[in-house]
């Protein structure tokens, strides 16, 4: 057993009441005219939705999935050549800088491939160029979908111009990340319903939105407004979109940055690939004036650099927006 000692500071085990697979997850067909309004409703209520007709080809997805599986199947000593995880590279079990652990291994990359080269070539060797090409094709297609979704969000919120969000992604200095998480099947998974191994502990994503695609293995759960957790039925042909902290601030709390986590699966391995849309470091993050309409701002303005700096040592589960919340005047 990994670590169940009550005295241990960090543990892989979490207690969670049994969660049910939910049919409540909002579904958005990007090719339909009601996409904008469905997206806005989903972001307000859940901060999360599933997307079909997303335009990312199954070919691009399968190629990257297969390259990723080849990588994660290498002996540990080979994978570690692509480490450490920070700033970019291979990581195993440890997440962030403050002792969080999970039942996973991962590759954390920047979407700006220039900075990935040393990381990648040390582990991929002669296969590096192939991996880069496959990764480029995938990221390019996901970026296109992200742009469309962000423009739909702005239009659904009646914000002009409609590229207020997508321009941050298209900026050459956009601080976006790409992550591939591999959760091996977990033999230590508790048999008890309310004891689960943590794959990736609960957290909100800091960025604007995250676009997640996984294989058909379950594990992802989201937290609802009432604090309860629901399991997201996996669907390898769809994408799942999370609202992140930055978008919650830009919409002055109208969109909800969704708390989510991954529980390990006792039988099957899970592979997920996530594109995190981040603003440039110098970008000022604040509620958009057109969404204020006389309302008070819930947040103090900050730059993306300031957010990252002040949260450098944060634990996964921390409320990272706490530093920037305005105390309402009584
Ligand atoms: C503990 C941490 C890991 C994390 C950075 C942080 O300080 C808090 C947020 C974590 C998170 C969640 C979404 C992404 O997976 C990630 C890359 C990010 O931008 O914020 C991770 C960070 C990480 O793994 O370093
Ligand atoms: O791997 C997953 O399914 C989700 C992981 C996640 O939330 C993250 O990497 O931020
Ligand atoms: Fe996340």
TrEMBL record:
<dbReference type="Pfam" id="PF03171">
    <property type="entry name" value="2OG-FeII_Oxy"/>
</dbReference>
<dbReference type="InterPro" id="IPR044861">
    <property type="entry name" value="IPNS-like_FE2OG_OXY"/>
</dbReference>
<comment type="pathway">
    <text>Hormone biosynthesis.</text>
</comment>
<dbReference type="GO" id="GO:0045543">
    <property type="term" value="F:gibberellin 2-beta-dioxygenase activity"/>
</dbReference>
<comment type="pathway">
    <text>Plant hormone biosynthesis; gibberellin biosynthesis.</text>
</comment>
<keyword id="KW-0479">Metal-binding</keyword>
<dbReference type="Pfam" id="PF14226">
    <property type="entry name" value="DIOX_N"/>
</dbReference>
<dbReference type="InterPro" id="IPR050231">
    <property type="entry name" value="Iron_ascorbate_oxido_reductase"/>
</dbReference>
<dbReference type="GO" id="GO:0046872">
    <property type="term" value="F:metal ion binding"/>
</dbReference>
<feature type="domain" description="Fe2OG dioxygenase">
    <location>
        <begin position="173"/>
        <end position="279"/>
    </location>
</feature>
<keyword id="KW-0560">Oxidoreductase</keyword>
<comment type="similarity">
    <text>Belongs to the iron/ascorbate-dependent oxidoreductase family. GA2OX subfamily.</text>
</comment>
<dbReference type="InterPro" id="IPR027443">
    <property type="entry name" value="IPNS-like_sf"/>
</dbReference>
<keyword id="KW-0408">Iron</keyword>
<dbReference type="InterPro" id="IPR005123">
    <property type="entry name" value="Oxoglu/Fe-dep_dioxygenase_dom"/>
</dbReference>
<protein>
    <recommendedName>
        <fullName>gibberellin 2beta-dioxygenase</fullName>
        <ecNumber>1.14.11.13</ecNumber>
    </recommendedName>
</protein>
<dbReference type="InterPro" id="IPR026992">
    <property type="entry name" value="DIOX_N"/>
</dbReference>
<comment type="function">
    <text>Catalyzes the 2-beta-hydroxylation of several biologically active gibberellins, leading to the homeostatic regulation of their endogenous level. Catabolism of gibberellins (GAs) plays a central role in plant development. Converts GA9/GA20 to GA51/GA29 and GA4/GA1 to GA34/GA8.</text>
</comment>
<keyword id="KW-0223">Dioxygenase</keyword>
